[in-house]
Amino acid sequence: MNARNIQLMITPALMGVCGASQAFAQQSDVVGKPAASSAALAAADEAQVKSAGVGEIIVTAQRRGENLQSVPIAVTAMSQDALEARGVRDTRSLEGLVPNLTIPRLGSINRPFLRGVGSDSSSNYDEPSVATYIDGYYIAAKSANQLGFNNLVRIEVLKGPQGTLFGRNATGGVIQLVTKDPTQDFHGDFGVGYGNYQTFTSDSYISSGIAPGLAADLAVQYSDQGKGFGRNLVVGNDINKYRSLSIRNKWVYTGDTTKVSLFVDYEKSRSNGLGYQLAPESRVLYGYPSIDRFDVEMNQTPYQNIRNLLTGLRIEKDLGFARLTSSTFYANYYQHYFTDIVKPPQTPNNSIQLGADTLEKLRQYTQEFQLQGNNTSGIRWQSGVYLFRYVEDSTLVLSGVTVGPDTFVTDTAKTSSIAIYGQMTYEIGPKLNLTGGLRYTYDKNETTNGLTRIPSLAVEIPGPDRETSSRNLTWRLALDYQMAPDVLAYASYNRGAKSGGFSVTSLTAPSYNPEQLDAYEVGLKTQLFDRAVRFNIAGFYYDYQDLQVLAVSSNGTSAQIFNAGKARVYGLDADFEVVPFENLTLAGGFGYLDGKYTSFPGSPSRGPNGKLAFVNVSGNRMTNAPEFSGSVSLTYAIPTRIGDFKVNGTLIHKGLSFATPDNRVNYPSYSVLNASIGWTSSDGRLGIDVWGRNLTDKAYYGQKSANAFGYFQAAAAPRTYGVRVKSKF
């Protein structure tokens, strides 16, 4: 790392003015303070809304409840109220609101990239580089990381490799969703809404005490979009329609020294939005006329069916000197989807060039034991063991003139992992803390029962059984100094690693190696002007090796992950919150990113006609790494005799980025405006919200790609708007 890069990191971290978004406190203990009751937390939150100044934010970035301003990690956190005000309905809507977070998506598959680090693969078996957690449980499948929640306390986004404390090593970062714990008081929240494209939504949440020390809740959410954004020009029906149902139930028992939590989460969704259209560059080349950005040309309407069942059991025991926690998690993921590539209807031959029907059945088993020391003698420590097993049975059916008769590809893939970790923070001087952590991880990946069948030709070709394993030592070193009561400076060095493995549908492809990332970060966390302003900023430099990159085979029939050489990333990101006077809040953030491949001599590259070549892309910008991204949100509350009115406007901007390492396919820059206005009765029991997203109907794209037939794209949502009526008791 040269002197110029060090200067680029340090200079921004010495700036200071604004702050991170508001977030509620979790049920965990704040370090050095007893756990607060849910009633106390609710009262504190209400007091924060009514008073001027930014409030305290409690996050669990280090697996314990701590004030955001005292955690030496770059974290963006948003409460349920802040998420609703800014038009966030699910995790994919976080793009733009979290600095340097990009989420390419197709249908119900999210592929988050944080500070330029992420995974392009849509396969559920290929774990993401930015991990998603729900209440501390790792969600391995990409098809389970975007459905909305109506029982959230907050969302936390941790930036940079999390190689010490979190269950699965994540080179890019972590997205944590924290849901409410049920309480003894009987209460409920209900809402029903209607929007354009015949979109109906409803949600309900009920919580109650069952017995002394035992409480339970139930959250139900339903959404049905009856009219699509576009049309399938071949079949003649709507495209981009969506229906989902989620049911979540949590039970919590709290004793004198023991807490037991059980949750069950069932999610089901159906969409016909898994459709690409041929991009303009390729349409011009083939002489095809232009079409609307939401229309597709397919002989069969694409679909995506998802069912997920998640179950988690956590037992916490206070041992006096420490807290022992056992976390057991089981998940069953099911995804069945189909998409095809067809010649447009204006040509004589409308036959399918390539159709892909994919069925994924996955099972995840997780067990973690964690021992967390009580804060004594200026030492905070925790250690644990993490066990992980992930199994997928997949079936891929290929059809069309490219492959001839229907071809079936089946395979079983397994990942087994064990990790031992520990981290300690020690006060080495007045207001000066040193944190050190280590994690040893052993991963084993294998595929069995691979088979390629062409029933009409009575052909069966077995695939070889494959096995690979890896051992990784990752760590964290951090130094933080409380320069003033409301100013914290820190510097950290983290190493993260992501497991290697096999490309499931490429039965003879070799294994790919683990990727490794060394991250250097300096940051400043401030609250200024008598807490009227919170401003947190971090500068970082990444040394990235053996990047895992997705490439499509020459005939377009399979996708394969391989390792690209090296890359380097540097930049900064900042979050701010300003309360200049009572009832007015200005919040947002911005990010600057410079990510480039430093060694990538054999990158696949395709032209608009799909022709494949291998080129040296060293010096090119990394994929999904826009140079600038940011957002600003203004919320104004107006108290009246008949209730409180609240107005919000949020502007999101994302700069130019690239979809392919050769930088030939790009995502143009765009800005999106969201807004809402709401009324809540004086007693808080009734309310109504009118909302709009992408109010200018900006054309931008959720996914772009290059394959054997050319360049393809899928548009992001157009202008949507609606009304929601809500009540509570």
Outline the fold blueprint:
Blueprint: H1 3-13, H2 38-50, E1 58-59, E2 66-67, E3 75-79, H3 80-85, E4 101-102, E5 105-106, E6 109-110, E7 113-114, E8 117-118, E9 130-134, E10 137-139, E11 152-159, E12 173-179, E13 187-195, E14 199-211, E15 214-225, E16 230-231, E17 238-239, E18 242-254, E19 258-271, E20 277-278, H4 280-286, E21 303-318, E22 322-342, E23 352-373, E24 379-400, E25 404-429, E26 432-454, E27 459-462, E28 466-484, E29 487-498, E30 515-528, E31 533-552, E32 559-581, E33 584-599, E34 603-606, E35 612-615, E36 628-640, E37 643-654, E38 657-658, E39 666-667, E40 670-680, E41 686-693, E42 701-707, E43 710-715, E44 720-728
Number of helices: 4
- Describe the main β-sheet briefly: 22 strands, antiparallel, barrel
Which residues sit in consecutive blocks of at least 5 with pLDDT less than 50?
1-51
Could you give me the name of the CATH homologous superfamily? Answer: TonB-dependent receptor, beta-barrel domain
Distance between the termini: 58 Å
Number of domains as seen in the coordinates: 1
CATH topology: Maltoporin, Chain A
Q: Indicate the overall shape.
A: globular
Beta fraction of the residues? over 45%
The whole-number mean of residue pLDDT values reads 87
Number of strands: 44
Helix content: under 10%
CATH class: Mainly Beta
Kindly name the structural category.
Answer: mainly beta
Please give the CATH architecture. Beta Barrel
Radius of gyration: 25 Å
